[in-house]
Design brief:
- The protein has 180 residues and is mostly helical.
- It is 69% helix and 0% strand.
- The chain has eight helices and no strands.
- It has helices at 7-20, 22-36, 39-44, 47-63, 66-89, 92-108, 121-130, 159-179.
- Helix 2 packs parallel to helix 5 (66-89) and helix 4 crosses helix 7 (121-130).
- It starts with 6 loop residues before the first helix and ends with a helix.
Length: 180
């Protein structure tokens, strides 16, 4: 499945597509919006799959200039509005996701926003971040000596603590897997 995938992974992939071919990104965005607004996808799609679609849509919005968005504005709004009924009738988690994506998309398209209350502020923050033009992902650089890895971790600049925490998480995960 897509358990390994985070919003930053999706953003990086969409950013690459934007660098390689903006026309392809525009076409992909419109096609993704068709999938997003499909009532069968809304009803039958697992939440994690729909979340990845939401990240992709938001990331694509952030990669496009105002003029590029204007060229597909009508297509996007038409597809968005045609699918909103399905999102509003979905279970609460999916409904919230649909409302967040609609809000972020309408904000980027400079369109009027509906007056609704969104409870999941963390998801809204992530989607707005993905849709922000000029978004950057912080590069974290760890200095690790692989020569002494087996004898113990040698690291500098506080990364040693992070590596030990990662090892602890890996150990916890393997224990959980053994219990399952």
């Amino acid at each position: 499945a897509v358990a390994w995938c985070s919003h930053d992974h999706v953003w990086c992939l969409v950013s690459y597509l934007a660098m390689v071919s903006t026309p392809t990104l525009l076409s992909t965005l419109v096609q993704l919006m068709s999938v997003w607004s499909d009532s069968v996808e809304i009803d039958q799609g697992r939440y994690r799959y729909l979340l990845c679609l939401a990240w992709t849509l938001s990331s694509a919005l952030g990669q496009l200039s105002g003029d590029q968005l204007a060229s597909v504005r009508d297509s996007l709004q038409l597809r968005l509005m045609s699918g909103m009924g399905g999102w509003l009738e979905a279970d609460p988690a999916k409904r919230q996701l649909g409302m967040i994506v609609a809000t972020v998309m309408l904000e980027r398209l400079d369109s009027p926003l509906p007056e609704w209350t969104l409870g999941d502020t963390e998801s809204m923050t992530v989607m707005r971040s993905l849709a922000s033009p000029g978004r950057k992902v912080d590069l974290v650089k760890y200095e690790i000596s692989f020569e002494t890895w087996s004898a113990g971790i040698t690291a500098t600049n506080k990364s040693e603590i992070v590596v030990r925490k990662l090892e602890k998480k890996i150990e916890e995960k393997s224990v959980r897997n053994d219990l399952d």
